[in-house]
Amino acid sequence: MPVFTGALAHALVAPTRYGVALFPDFEAIDIFGPLDALNAVAYSYQINLTLISTTLDPVTAKPQSAAMNLLNSSFGESIVPTHTFDTAPELDVLLIPGGLGTRAPPPQLDPLIAFIKERFPTLKHLITVCTGAGLAARAGVLDGKYATANKKAWASTIAWGPKVRWVAQARWVQDGNVLSIIFINVNESHLNKCFRWSDITIAFIEAVYGNMTATSIANGMEYVRHLNSTDDPFAALNGLTNVNNSTNQK
Amino acid sequence: MPVFTGALAHALVAPTRYGVALFPDFEAIDIFGPLDALNAVAYSYQINLTLISTTLDPVTAKPQSAAMNLLNSSFGESIVPTHTFDTAPELDVLLIPGGLGTRAPPPQLDPLIAFIKERFPTLKHLITVCTGAGLAARAGVLDGKYATANKKAWASTIAWGPKVRWVAQARWVQDGNVLSIIFINVNESHLNKCFRWSDITIAFIEAVYGNMTATSIANGMEYVRHLNSTDDPFAALNGLTNVNNSTNQK
C-alpha cells in the first residue's frame, strides 16, 4: 500500500462535505467568517456546503426577542437553507454558530439539538463558534470532552453541559485529532467573533488540509495568527477559572 | 436653536437607512463583516437595513464562472434581497461589496451601476469594500475623488475609473466629511477583507456615531485598531505608487 505524505495525504483524508446548522438570530459573522476562509479552500479542494434548518424558509439574523431590540431597529439579513434537518446529506464537518438565538425558548431548538446528537457519531469534525458550544453541550456530544465558549455568556453556557470539561483560559480547544473528531470551540467575549474565528478557522484548515494551505491562506489574509490557544486574557477579565478537571489544550 | 453636542448630536445627524447592493458571486465577508459590527450599532441606534438586487430572488456567493471553480466545488451561500433596484427606499448609506462577481460581463451589472449613479447624490455615505470601488468608479461617482481598492486587482480596478484619484498606499480613503459624503474604500489584497473591514467599519462608526460608540464596539471586539490609514505595506509589495495627483488621506 502506498504511503502518501504532505499535500497528497491531506487531499486523500481531507473532509469534503461541510454543513452549517442554522437557527433564527444566529450571529452572522460566526457563519460567514469561517465560510469566507473555507471559500478559499474550495479553490484548492473539491468541497461542498449544505446549509441546514428546520424548514427551507430563509433564516434571519435579526433579533427575535423584543427585549434584544429595544430601539426597534430593523437590521438583519436572511440566508437560504439548502436542506432541512430531515433531508441533509451525510456530512464530514458540522459548524454550529452562536448568537442570541441559542437562547430561544424550548421547543424551538429541539430539531437542531436532535440533529447534532444524531449526526455527531458520523462526523469527522465538529466546529462550534461562540455560544454554539452550548447547543452541542445540550445535545450531550461534548460530555467528557474539553471545550470552551463565549466568556461573557460563560455561566449560562456551561450550565448547558455539566459533564463537559469546560476550559476557561483558552482561545480555542481541540479534543481529538484530525482523523477522529476535532472539537474547536471559539472562546471569545461578546463581539469578538470576527477575530477569534480567524485563528480557529486557520487552525482547522491547517489540521485538515496541511500547513501549506493554512500558511497560504493566512498570508493571503495578511493575518498574524495567534498560535497559543491559551493566550487568553479574557478569562481573568471575567473572573473565570477552569472547572471539571479541565486542562488547557495546546 | 439649541446646540447639541456629543452622543446627542450624533443621534440627531447619524444615518438610519442602510442599504447593501447585491450581485452574484459577492464576497461574503465584505457584506457580513461590516454588518456584524453595524448590528451592534443597532442596539444603540434605531437603524434599518435593506438588501438590494436586480430581482427578489436569493443572491449567491458562489463563483459564477467555471474558470474560477476548476475543481467544481459547490461552496457558497445565498442571501435574500428585501428590495430591487427599482423598489429600494431612500438610503443614507450604501455599501458596495467586492468579489469576483464585480467582473461579470456586461450587461449583468448595468442595473446595479445605474442604481449607484442614480442614488449617489442623495446618500450621506458611500462605503465600498475591496473591488466594490470598481463598481462605484464605473458609475462615475468617484470621478475627481480620492479612493482606493484591492491591490492585487489594482490594475483592472483603476482602469474602471480613469478620472478617480486612486491612492495606492492606503488602508482606506475618506473623501468628504461626515455631514456630506464619506468615501471609504477598503484597500486590501486578496482575502484581506476580514481584517481591513474591521478598521474601516469602526472608522466609519466613529465618524458618524462618535468616538464613544466606536471605542465601545472596538473594545468589545477586543480589536487593536489601525489608526493610520497609510500604514499599508501591500502597495510596495505589489509595486504600486499613487497616480492622478493623489495624496494619502488621513
From TrEMBL, chains A, B:
For this protein, the record's CDD domains field holds: GATase1_PfpI_2
Which protein is depicted? Related to ThiJ/PfpI family protein
Give the source's domain of life in one word: Eukaryota
Residue limits of the DJ-1/PfpI domain? 20-179
Annotated source species = Phialocephala subalpina
The signal peptide annotation in the UniProt record is none
